[in-house]
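2024-03-11 09:14:02 INFO worker-7 job=invfold-0412 stage=load source=structure_tokens
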């Protein structure tokens, strides 16, 4: 950091502790720091609950992004079926059914306690190797706010191993769940745009509405190929910001750096850094309490949103729901 001209630079070192452990090792030689793994940790993560159950054991887990952040297992203590016949067998079966009912209730209480502590929970996967999962899913053991989020899948295992199998088997269904939600968001923006009110789009219009606190929701394509570049004049301190695509970073930026400063006229503009526009918009939205919806351009609705709105739109607080 130059303090008063050439030769007065000061080096400052900061320790940054990531919010989650980084389990990858990478050796890379480059002219800039490789920050992608850290940026990935800061992205919004979808949260799902997983409950795997049979008559012997149950496992409850919370999946955040690709990582299991919570996992607990429970045993039923319920004996197996009685092989003998007669009166004692019927009495044994009644006791066994009572024990199973208590077991389901106990698992439901633990699941409610865990899942309700994650208000952002998108769905609950109930899985298992036999009919127990359907009995549990349909028995009303989960809190009423969770029941509409339930997805039932078959697994060959129960317990901790069953959790991993359930996540793998439900992957496509969970992806489809988010896809449906993104389509609904894009459809709403389209509807408001057609009606002629309730939505703004384009970088300048959206950022102006954000600054005034007029937006209820910011909708942006997460793969948006736009960067905010900060230029500063080393002579007079004039600062300006440009929004460029990755191609323009190569073609337009060097030309601008070779042009005179609009304030003092000296050819002294310096690139002070660039940041993905998505990150800038998210930060501006969070500063004013605006909800952010990230849309993937990998599906038809997201591609259409990128093409028609430039990948950036905002739903106004005045828009009708």
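2024-03-11 09:14:09 INFO worker-7 stage=emit residues=321
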């Amino acid at each position: 950091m130059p303090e008063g001209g050439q030769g007065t630079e000061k080096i400052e070192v900061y320790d940054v502790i990531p919010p989650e452990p980084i389990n990858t090792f990478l050796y890379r030689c480059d002219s800039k720091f490789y920050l992608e793994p850290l940026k990935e940790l800061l992205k919004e993560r979808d949260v799902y609950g997983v409950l795997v159950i049979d008559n012997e054991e149950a496992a409850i887990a919370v999946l955040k992004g690709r990582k299991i952040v919570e996992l607990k297992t429970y045993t039923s203590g319920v004996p197996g079926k009685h092989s003998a016949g007669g009166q004692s067998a019927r009495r044994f079966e009644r006791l066994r059914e009572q024990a199973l009912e208590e077991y389901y209730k106990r698992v439901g209480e633990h699941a409610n306690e865990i899942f309700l502590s994650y208000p952002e929970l998108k769905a609950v996967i109930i899985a298992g190797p036999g009919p127990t999962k359907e009995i549990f899913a349909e028995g009303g053991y989960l809190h009423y706010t969770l029941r509409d989020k339930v997805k039932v899948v078959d697994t060959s295992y129960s317990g901790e191993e069953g959790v991993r199998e359930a996540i793998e088997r439900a992957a496509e269904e969970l992806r489809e769940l988010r896809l449906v939600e993104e389509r609904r968001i894009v459809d709403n923006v389209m509807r408001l745009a057609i009606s002629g009110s309730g939505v703004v789009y384009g970088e300048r219009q959206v950022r102006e509405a954000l600054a005034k606190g007029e937006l209820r929701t910011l909708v942006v394509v997460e793969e948006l190929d736009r960067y905010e570049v900060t230029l500063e004049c080393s002579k007079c301190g004039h600062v300006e910001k440009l929004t460029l695509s990755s191609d323009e970073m190569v073609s337009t930026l060097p030309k601008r750096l070779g042009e005179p400063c609009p304030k003092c006229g000296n050819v002294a503009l310096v690139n002070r850094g660039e940041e993905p526009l998505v990150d800038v918009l998210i930060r501006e939205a969070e500063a004013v309490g605006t909800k952010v919806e990230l849309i993937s351009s990998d599906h038809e609705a997201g591609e259409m949103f990128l093409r028609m709105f430039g990948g950036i739109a905002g739903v106004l607080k005045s828009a009708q729901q």
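2024-03-11 09:14:09 INFO worker-7 stage=report msg="The domain at 197-321 is CATH 3.30.1330.30 (60s Ribosomal Protein L30; Chain: A;)."
2024-03-11 09:14:10 INFO worker-7 job finished
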